[in-house]
Structures are given as structure tokens and as C-alpha cells.
Design a protein that fits this description.
Layout lengths: L8 E5 L4 H12 L3 E5 L8 H10 L5 E2 L6 H11 L3 E4 L6 H6 L1 H21 L4 E7 L23 H18 L5 E7 L1 E3 L18 H9 L6 E4 L11 E2 L1 E3 H17 L5 E7 L5 E2 H12 L5 E4 L14 H7 L7 H16 L1
Parallel strand pairs: 1-2, 1-4, 2-3, 4-5, 5-6, 6-11, 7-10, 8-13
Antiparallel strand pairs: 9-12
Helix pairs in contact: 1-2, 1-8, 3-5, 5-6, 7-11, 9-11
Amino acid sequence: MTPTGNSPKILVTGGAGFIGSHTVVSLVEAGFEPVIIDDFSNSERSALAGLRAILGRDVTCYAVDCNDAAAMDDIFQKETPLGVIHFAAYKAVGESVAKPLKYYRNNLDPLLLLLELMPKHNVKNLVFSSSCTVYGQPEELPVTEETPRLPAQSPYGNTKSIGEDILRDAVRAQIPVKVMALRYFNPIGAHPSAQIGELPLGVPANLVPFITQTAAGIRSSLTVYGDDYNTPDGTCIRDYIDVMDLADAHVQALRKLNEDTTEASYDVINIGTGRGETVLSVIKTFEEATDVKVNYVIGPRRPGDVEQVYADVSKANNVLGWTARRSLAESLRDAWQWQQKISL
């Protein structure tokens, strides 16, 4: 896939990460020219080779810290982008509790810098990577965008709430940016080519990489934290969305912002499937989809875990014209194919 030469450029901070790299693919397929900015502190350079294999060419990448004001200013000057998709952030909940200042500095300072550089370079469109963690344990399900945000359970979660507040206040002050904050639920899966996927550093914090690593024999067993919740099988419920569906949502958000003729706007949109799956149902679906057994044990509840959360996605359907298309079984097959590739 070759750029036309006049394809609109999109800066993708954290573009070598799990969600960022898949969004780069969706952007190219939609006719945009992504420009990755990633310091590789929380990602691997191998993602660039995976992107090359999928796209048949290299993607421009700056190995730059998004906190580096001079370097970021130079990139805006050189690339003259149509918009920015901002993924770059640390995301390990446990580490954020132990090192809160590291998380506040890394996750908030680059956002402030973007809000200074975008008007300077006349760049108006910003898609912000937010999270369903802002909802905590909601009183009613499914959660809509009007569901009250609850106090964050971790500094990581709090950086997403504060990030949203910064963006909302910037728009209220008529800083000329148009912003869409996408509140992700639980991204899973991998590109069907198995060239890119999730690369957790150390012990995975998310369910699906732990399932695939256990199935591959990297982990001896998977611990299911609690089976006495008020759910059909006693295990926690989450809304698992395929990473390629999530990537497509970013493209739709970007298009929507570009159509918006106002000087400044702010909106939040849930990105999920609208369905909740228990931990045990995900394990069972994985086993059925791959014909591989997963060794798991039931452990005690884990402090801070929300019992159940899943999205009302009608706003994404109506505003973005987007809906999740891939099934849980497809996502788990792709995740397993990716795990097999990186385990070789």
C-alpha cells in the first residue's frame, strides 16, 4: 500500500504500541498517511517490521519522547498533519499505584504540550485515548456516556479522568481544537496476519495475553480472581472489543472531527461491543475456538476489581456510524495465532 503523496497526515503518538500499531493499519487502509511518534519505552521496534509486512512499505516513525517540546514542535512543522491520535501513555495499574508521579508526568504533560502545539501549527483534530476505568463500578448497566464518572481506583485511571477534564476545559476556553475522547472497554485480539499484536512487558495485566501465554506453556496456570461475584458464573464481566474494530473507530472519529465546522468542540464516546462476557466464558470460548485447553485455577478476589462493566454503544453507532463487527471467537483465534508466532 503506497501513499498517494497527498494523503492527509495523522500524527499517532504511541503508534508502535498495541492499539496504536493496529490503528496505523486502519489509517492507511482509509487513505490517511500515519506518522508514528514513539520513544519505545513501552513498546517494541518489532512492531515497525510487522507494519512493513502488512502494508508493504515503511511508515514514518520518530523515536521521540512526547514530552520533548522542541522535537515535537519540529515534527509538527515538518509533517503539517491534519490531526493527532494520542495514545502515548503508561497503563499498568499496579505500577501507577507504586509510582504515581511517573504516571501523572508521563500521561498528562504530553497532552498539555499537544494543546499548545496544535493551535500554533493550525492542527484542529484530536482523538484522545480514554478508558472505561473512568466509570468505576457503575450503579446501572450498560454504561452510557452520561453515566457519572466515579473516583478513579488508581493513578492510571485518574490520568484518564484528568485528561478528559483538561480537554473539556481547553475547549470551553475556545482553544481551537476539536476533540473526541474514546472510552475503550477491553481491547483484545491481533491483526489477522499475526504480524502485530499485544506485547505485554513482563507478567500480563490483561486476561487474554495471560490465557494465550498459559495455553502456550509460558505460564503454568491462569488464576481466575474470584468466582463468587453476582454474575451468571460468579466471575467478573467485561466488554471485550477486537483491536481492529477499535482501530476502525479511531478512523471514524477522525473523519467525524474533520467534518465538524466549529472552531472548538469536545465529545466522549464509548467504544465496546455492548455485550458483557464473564472470565470463564472467555476461557471457554478460547478453548472452543482454538481446540487448546487452558489450565486455570480459582483464586480469591483481587482488590480493586470491578464486578461488571459493559458499554451502551448506541452513541458510537449513531454519531460515528461505527459498530463492532468481529466476534469474541475471531478475536481469540487471532490472539492465539499471534501468540504462536511470537513464541517460536
